């Protein structure tokens, strides 16, 4: 039986490398881009077993439409790789009342997982792979500032990005508890610093300063994608859930990443914020 994987943010960087790797392993790959045209272009570089999908993570309507398309294509989803993300170095921007990084990197995937959770559970051994980051260290001292999700207080781009990446890891941890007693798993990965399109958001002078050292400081996208590919496909991880991986190895996560109480509160608040759009499988 052919396995199916959905990869968000598959038009470049880690997502595109993951799509290529899974396609080479025989997976039918569903690849999302912010526009259908960019997704089609990426799929042309992956192969005939790649299907392009449009997904604008700032739009709940787009997320729901994408999920409905996935339902038609893949009632059983073996891998749901939540890879897409933004790291914007600029002024604060609000999406639907929520700071942009938190809205796109966390809440959008929270909604997508809700909509596709039945598909993951329908697979013989469905896996949700959440691409997090060591940038959780940049999050505010509280971890997640639930009273400041619009980012009006103390905003910096790195702080906002760090909070959203901590949210990714905490969501994965909490989702693993929801999957307990099923064949499905949820794990988070830290790909490490890598040379991807995210760097385009940095000011030109920072990119210029980094340029001579990029090969020493940054992994290639192909190298950095290996951990999420491993977590998505390794047979030895079939029953491993709620874990955190770096360099294709399970790591003991730092206290912030394994904070069950913070994960519970994140789940509750995210459920409230997304309630008008939820399918109903995620409850506070």
Written description of the protein model:
With 284 residues, this protein is an alpha/beta fold. The protein has one domain: 3-Layer(aba) Sandwich (Rossmann fold), CATH 3.40.50. 42% of the residues lie in helices and 14% in strands. It has ten helices and ten strands. Strands 3-2-1-4-7-8-9-10 form an eight-stranded mixed beta sheet, sandwiched between helices. β2, α2 and β3 form a beta-alpha-beta unit. α3 runs parallel beside α4, α4 packs parallel to α5 and α5 crosses α10. It is globular, with a radius of gyration of 17 Å. The mean pLDDT is 91.
List the helices and strands and how they pair.
Elements lengths: L3 E4 L5 H12 L3 E6 L2 H9 L5 E5 L5 H14 L5 E4 L11 E2 L2 E2 H23 L4 E5 L25 H22 L6 E6 L13 H7 L3 H4 L3 H4 L1 H8 L10 E3 L2 E3 L8 H15 L10
Parallel strand pairs: 1-2, 1-4, 2-3, 4-7, 7-8, 8-9
Antiparallel strand pairs: 5-6, 9-10
Helix pairs in contact: 3-4, 4-5, 5-10
């Amino acid at each position: 039986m052919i396995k199916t994987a959905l990869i968000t943010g598959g038009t470049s960087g880690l997502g595109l490398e993951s799509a290529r790797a899974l396609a080479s392993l025989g997976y039918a790959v569903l690849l999302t881009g912010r526009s259908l045209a960019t997704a089609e272009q990426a799929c042309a570089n992956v192969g005939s077993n790649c299907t392009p999908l449009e997904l604008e993570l700032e739009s709940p309507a787009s997320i729901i439409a994408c999920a409905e398309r996935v339902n038609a294509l893949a009632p059983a989803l073996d891998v749901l790789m939540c890879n897409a993300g933004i790291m914007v170095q600029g002024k604060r921007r609000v999406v639907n009342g929520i700071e942009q990084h938190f809205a796109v990197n966390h809440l959008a995937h929270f909604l997508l997982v809700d909509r596709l959770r039945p598909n993951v559970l329908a697979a013989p051994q469905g896996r949700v792979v959440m691409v997090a980051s060591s940038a959780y260290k940049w999050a505010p001292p509280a971890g997640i500032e639930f009273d400041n999700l619009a980012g009006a207080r103390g905003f910096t781009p790195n702080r906002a990005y760090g909070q959203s990446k901590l949210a990714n890891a905490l969501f994965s941890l909490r989702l693993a508890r929801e999957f307990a007693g099923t064949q499905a798993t949820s794990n988070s990965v830290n790909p490490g610093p890598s040379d991807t399109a995210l760097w385009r958001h940095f000011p030109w002078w920072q990119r210029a300063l980094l340029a001579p050292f990029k090969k020493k400081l940054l992994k290639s996208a192909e190298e950095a994608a290996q951990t999420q590919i491993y977590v998505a496909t390794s047979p030895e991880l079939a029953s491993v859930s709620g874990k955190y991986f770096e360099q294709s190895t399970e790591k003991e996560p730092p206290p912030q990443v394994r904070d069950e109480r913070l994960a519970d509160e994140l789940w509750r608040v995210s459920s409230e914020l997304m309630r008008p759009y939820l399918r109903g499988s995620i409850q506070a």
